[in-house]
Amino acid sequence: MKSGEMFANLGSIIAGVMFIWAMIQQYCPYELRQCVEKYGSKVFTFFYPYLQITFNEFTGERFMRSEAYSTIETFLGYNSSMQAKRLKASDAIKTNQPLTLSMDDFEEVADEFQGVKLRWASGKLYPKSQTISFYPSSEERRYYKLTFHKRHRDLVIGSYLPHVLKEGKAIKVKNRQRKLYTNSGSKWSCVVFQHPATFETVAMEPKKKKEIVDDLITFSKSEEFYTRIGRAWKRGYLLYGHPGTGKSTMIAAMANLLDYDIYDLELTAVKDNTELRKLLIETQSKSVIVIEDIDCSLDLTGPRKKKVKEEEKDATPKDPNQKQQKEEDTSSKVTLSGLLNFIDGLWSACREERLIVFTTNFKEKLDPALIRRGRMDKHIELSYCNFEAFKVLADNYLKLESHQLFTKISKLLGEVQMTPADVAEHLMPKTFPGDPETCLESLIRGLEIKKEEEEEAAKHKDSSTKKEQEAREKDSSIKKEAEQNKESPESDQLGNK
């Protein structure tokens, strides 16, 4: 009975407080109400021992989604899925990825860090004007609120929040779907990157392969080192070699090893250096920026400033369409200095942890300033297929580690230059199920044919060289006879005198 009376009294007190507050809001001036709320809040926070930090979903004037909010959402979704009673799942139909869970609105979960207990709560602010709609309002504001005791302020701000952001970013990178980007003018478009190449399947000498893998892993773990020496956290790789030696496959293997996105930059689609900088700014960290066949992309092999010929200046097309086409063709393009600034200038430090990869078939054609150390830090030559590389291909294509025909193939590969792409084509099964021995015999025939062709070419070259030498000797003998004939009349004239 006493408890009933106590609850009745409590209810009367609450009703009285609500009545008084309603009267204050109705009849008190706005300034007085604001003053009461201000000092009342100060009195409440003086006795309330907990602090709160709010992370809003959208910040700034441009309605940009907060990166901190997104990172915290990832962290809480990964760590609180077993605690929260109400979760929301992302739509994974288009991405073909497992469902991603996160806290639903107005849900709370607990966390512990170095023995300190903290609470995370998710909330949402509704717009002032409520309208009936089947779609969520664009004015809704979601947020996460962290509550902790005020005596742990330094620990939370100094250690816990950086820990949350670091863990959230790591989870986001681990669970993200990697993309392959390409540019159309100054805009990037992307598709899902699903290339299966790895360093285990790359046809290359094991020693050289290990050297590249160690270099990549060392780079990915050297953030503190690059900060200490005052360099942007990036590294340049120049891949060069004959067509079919596996340059594109190497790029895919590098991206798969480090879990990086790939930005395939088409320089011919970039209007000028300004657009190039814009594209660079829009790239993300943990990425590989690729310019394939750079010797064919732009005129970067000759002088940095090219003079216009006089006949080109005087040539004025009469057709308006031709004139417009010529104006488009002669519009400003990316220059060598702009590309160099892209690689290691001031703008190159706008993102961290990136690889910049150039590929070319002819290294000697490139400007030395473009490929010097510090820009292209590591030069990797992808050569013709040797026996070690063949064994990798045989294991990939035929599941063979040894065979009686390997000895003959090893001898032929030492005598003939064949690219890994050509070797792989011979190892492709021509029937189902494939016969490994038939594929090896096909490779042997291909190597023997190529050997005969090279010998014929060498003989033809020797015969051509011999004919050229004979022609030169004949020309020199003719010249000598002419000189002698020229001198003989003079001697006859002297004799007559």
Task: Briefly characterize the structure.
This protein is of the alpha/beta class and 497 residues long. It is built from 17 helices and 15 strands.
Describe the structure in your own words.
It is built from 17 helices and 15 strands. It is elongated. Helices cover about 50% and strands about 15% of the residues. A hairpin with a 2-residue loop joins β9 (about 180-185) and β10. By secondary structure, it is α/β, with parallel strands linked by helices. The model is unreliable at about 130-140 and about 300-315 (pLDDT under 50). The strands form four sheets. It has a seven-stranded mixed β-sheet. Strands 1-8-7-6 form a four-stranded antiparallel β-sheet, covered by helices on one side.
The value of Rg in angstroms is 37 Å
Which of globular, elongated, flat, extended, rod-shaped describes the shape?
elongated
Spatial separation of the terminal alpha carbons = 163 Å
Strand order of the biggest β-sheet: 10-9-12-13-14-11-15
Round the mean pLDDT to the nearest integer and report it: 79
- Quickly give the structural class: alpha/beta
Strand percent estimate = 15-25%
Note the total helix count: 17
Tally the beta strands.
Answer: 15
Main sheet record: 7 strands, mixed
Uncertain spans, ≥5 residues at pLDDT below 50? 132-138, 302-315
> In which range does the helix fraction lie?
40-55%
